[in-house]
Amino acid sequence: VQLVESGGGLVQAGGSLRLSCEGSGFSFDDYAIGWFYQTPGKQRVGVSCIRHGDGSVTYEHSDQGRFTISADRAKNMVYLEVNSLKPEDTAVYYCAASPPWIAGAAREPPCKDYEYDFWGQGTQVTVSS
Question: Which residue, 21, 7, 18, 19, is CA-closest to 120?
Fold first, then answer.
C-alpha cells in the first residue's frame, strides 16, 4: 500500500487549496481513505474520511464547512479541498488508508488516526495572515 500526497504550499489567509492523495497497491473500493492534519507536538487529527465502497463520508473537523473530500475511483485519487484558509490550518496534512476489516465495520467510515494503518509522507500547508 502506497499513498502519496501533493498540493500543499504557502497560501494567504482566505485562500483555497486542493490536496491530492494518490493510492497504489490496494483496491480503493475495499478501503477507507482519510485526511488528517498534524501540528508540531500534537497528535494527528482527522479532517474527513471517505469509504469508496458505498461513497459514505465522515467529517471530523470542527469547522467542517470549509472542507470537502472527494474521490476519483478510476484514478485511485482522493482530494481534500480547503476553503477560507486560516493561519490555524497550518499543519502537515496526511492521507491514510484504513483496511477493509476496519473500514467496513461501522455505518460511517472511520476517521480516527488509530483506525488507519497506512500513511503517506505528508504535505505541508502554511497559511500566512
Answer: 21
pLDDT number for residue 33: 97
Biggest CA–CA distance in the chain, Å, is 42
The torsion defined by the Cα of 87, 88, 91 and 95, in degrees rounded to 10, comes to -110
- pLDDT category, 100, cuts 50, 70, 90? very high
Residues 6+ apart with CB under 8 A from 18: 7, 79, 80, 81, 82
* Residue 1 near residue 103, CB atoms below 8 Å: no
In terms of C-beta density within 10 A (0-12 exposed, 13-18 middle, 19 or more buried), how is residue 24 classed? Answer: exposed
Cα distance between residue 25 and residue 27, in whole Å: 7
Q: Residues of the chain with pLDDT > 90: what percent?
A: 88
Residue 83 main-chain phi, psi, to 5 deg:
-115, 165
pLDDT higher than 90, residue 94: yes
How is residue 81 written as a grid cell? 479541498
